[in-house]
Amino acid sequence: MTDLKDTATLVLPNVEAKRKRGRPKCFDEQEALQKAMLLFWEYGYEATSISDLTYALKITAPSLYSSFGDKSQLFHRCLEYYLEHEACPIERIFQEAKTAKVAIELYLYENVKKLVQEHKPTGCMLVVATMNCSEQNHDIQNELLLKRQKTKQKIFERLTQGVAEGDLSKESNLLEMTDFYSTVIQGLTLQARDGLGREELNQIVRHSMKSWILFSSDEMS
Hints:
Layout: H1 4-21, H2 29-43, H3 50-57, H4 61-68, H5 71-85, H6 90-96, H7 100-115, H8 125-128, H9 138-165, H10 174-193, H11 198-210
Helix pairs in contact: 2-3, 2-5, 6-7, 7-9, 7-10, 7-11, 9-10, 10-11
């Protein structure tokens, strides 16, 4: 006759092993992040509900929470997914461009391509996802603000590099240039959301680049 202690020794390790393994995921996490990102991008953080997310991802609420945490944690993951897969590659463009002017011009045109795509929301997620958020989601708004400011800092640094390399006048007002082109970028997002097409947005870029020479003139310095 088998001793109860021996039986417990045989059974318990198997139970413990199952607990450690947990329930296997029945969905592709990267695909789920992409679908959730598209919802946040299109409708914004607050307007996207848990039920919207579970319906789009075809998973239950418990599965969503166990895989991604709460709604804010999922949004953070989607934001990182957006920056990796959808956002304009500012660092690569700025590194490869031979002059500061070429860097800014290419970056604006590449933004236009990203802002108006087939089968994807218009505009930049960093701008539109928290436009209508209430005070209770201030932390999320602030996170997107910091990411936009990081982009603005990169623009300033690329302009500074242009001065150091001699392709941009030392008389240029770099702060004003940074503010101007950052405003153009955010304005393109809002115009894209309002329905402007790629050609109209490219025309705005062309006009904005005509202002380049003004920032190094005596009147603007």
